[in-house]
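Box S2. Input/output pair 1.
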Amino acid sequence: MNVQDLMRLSPVIPVLTVHDLAHAAPLARALVAGGLRVLEMTLRTPCALEAIALMRAAVPDAIVGAGTLMRPEDFEAVARAGAQFGVSPGLTPALLDAAASAPFPLLPGVMTPSELIAARAAGFTACKLFPAQQAGGIEMLKALAGPFPDHMFCPTGGITRQNAPAFLALPNVLCVGGSWVVPKAALASGNWAEIEALARDAALLASS
C-alpha cells in the first residue's frame, strides 16, 4: 500500500502522543472502533516505540505509523517496532536515503514551494503540509494547487474539528492530521468512550 492509498482510508489521521504504555492498546481499540484505522504515533515520548508494537499486536485492524521521524536511525527503530508508514516534519537528503530503503512508505513534511519541488524530485506525490496553519492554511493549499495540481496533501498543525471540513473540501487534500480526536484529559483518565465518539464523528468528515 502506498502513502496515497493510506491517506484515502480515512479523512482524519489521529496524531498521537502516549506517555503511559498502558494506554496504547485501549486507545487504538477506541479509535478503530470509531472508524479511524490509520494512526500516527509520534516519537515524542520514551515509550513511543513500545506503544507502536503494542497497538499492532492488540488491534490487527489498525494501520499504525510513526511520526516525528527526524534521523535515519528513526526509520530503523520504528521498522523494528512494526510501523506500517512513516511521517516526517521535514525532508533532508539523509531522510531521503533512509526512506529509500525503509520497508514502509513515508509521508514527508513540507512548508514551502522549494521543499515541495525537492520532494517531488525525489518521487513523492503526497506530502504533509506542516505546520499547516502557520504555513498559510487553506489559502496556501489553494496557491500550491496552481503550479502543483497533481500533488496531494495531508495538512497537519492547527487542524481542529471546526476547520477540518474546510481543509477536506480542497481538491488537493486527501486527509488531515489532528490531535483533537484524543483530548489530553480523556486520554489521561482513560475515557475511551469519549475518544471513540470523537473518532466516529471525525470518520464521518468527507474529503473531496
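Box S3. Input/output pair 2.
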Amino acid sequence: MTLERFARHLCGLAAAVLLAACGGGGDSASCDVASQKTWLRSYMLDWYYWSGLSPNPDPAGYASVADYFQALKYTSYPGIGVEPWSYIQDSVSYNRFFAEGRAMDYGLSVNGREGVLPLKIRYVEPRSPAAAAGLLRGDVIKAIDGVADSTLISSDFAVLSPAQAGQQITLDIERAGVPQRVTLAAAEYALTPVPASATLPGSVGYLLLKDFIVQAESELTTRLDAIKAAGATDLIIDLRYNGGGRISTANHFASQVVGAVQAGKVFATLNYNAAHQAANRSFVMSGASGPAFARVVILTGLRTCSASELLVNGLRPHVQQVVTIGGTSCGKPYGFSPVEACGKVFSAVNFKAVNAAGQADYETGITPTCAVADDFSGRFGDPAETLTAAALSYLQTGSCPATAAQPQRLRRAGAEPGERRGMTAN
C-alpha cells in the first residue's frame, strides 16, 4: 500500500484533526509553523501510541515543528528515557526509499556506532558510486576529506550524507596494508535489497536481506525457491544491517520461510492506542510452494531493528527452531502509520506489533542465542565469514562457538548514514 493510500485509509478512521494532515497541508496558511504545531499537537494526542502518557506542552514555547515534535515524545521508554524512534523526514527522501526503492548518497556504510578503531567499510551498496569505485567491505578508512579516523570515530558521520547529487568526498583507505585514495560523487541509484544468497555445506541456505521494501519481494521468492530446490533444509537469514521497512514485505518473507503448511496463520498483529482499537489489524501468512525450513538462524546486531526484529519474533511461533547469532538487536517492537503534511512525512509511533502468541517484549533488544562479534570483513555468504561460520557451527553442533563477543557501543540517538530504521504498516 502506498503512503498516499494508507493516509486515505487512516482518514477513514481518524478524527477531524487528522484530515488536515491527510489533505497534505497543501494551502500555504496551514503550512506556517504555528498551524503545523497546532495540528501536530492534536495528531499526537489522537494517534500517538503513548497518548495520555506523554508530555503535552503548549506549542507556543517552541520555535520549530521539529523541536515541538521532540517535546511531545514519551519520556519513559525502557532503558532510554525519551522515546527514540519517532521522526520527521522530507517526503521526497521518504518516498525515494519506501516507494521507489532508491537512494541518493555514496553507497557505503561504516562501523561508526561501535566507537572503536579501525574504522571499516562494513557495507557497500552494489549499484552505488562506492561500488563503482571498487570499494569493498573490510576496507579500512584512514581519513575522509582529510579528517583522520581518530577524529571521525567520535562523529555522527554526517559527511557520508550528501545534500545533493554530485557532492564529492575523498577517502583515504587501506586494503591489505596498501594505501589508496578514492574520490566519490554522490548519485541516485536503485537499491539492491537482496544482495546475496547461497547454498552452503550441510544443506544450509543463506540469504542476506538489506531492506524490507516491496522491490525485494519477487527476488526473495526466486532466491528462496532456488535454495529449496538445491536441497537446503535449514536457513541462515542475514539481517545484521537491516533497519526494517514494510511489514507487508516481512510478512511475505515469513510466508516463504514457513511454507504452505502455515498458510492462514497470523504473522503479526498491530495494536494501536486505546482510542483506535478499530485500527488494529493482523498480517496473515500466505504460505509458499515447497517445504518449510526446519531450523532458521538469523544473524543480528545493533543495527537489526524494527521490521527485522518483527521477522525474528513473528517466525518463532511457527518454526521448529529460531536462533539468533551476533549481537543484541536495537529494541523496537513499535511502528508507524506515516502521515504526510506540508512536504514532510511524520512517522510517530502508532502501534506495537506482537506475534501470534501475543509476544513483543524486547524494548531492550533481542539478546542473541550466541553472542559473536562482527569483524566487518569477509564476503557475505562465505562459509568462512565470521557470523556465517558461527551459524554453520551452531547448526552442526547445537552449541554456541567458543567466540567471545566484543562490547558494542550503542548510540541510539542517531543512526549512521545508510541506516533506515522503520516498520511501516503498508
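Caption for Box S3: Residues 1-29 have pLDDT under 50 and may be disordered. The first helix runs from residue 3 to 13.
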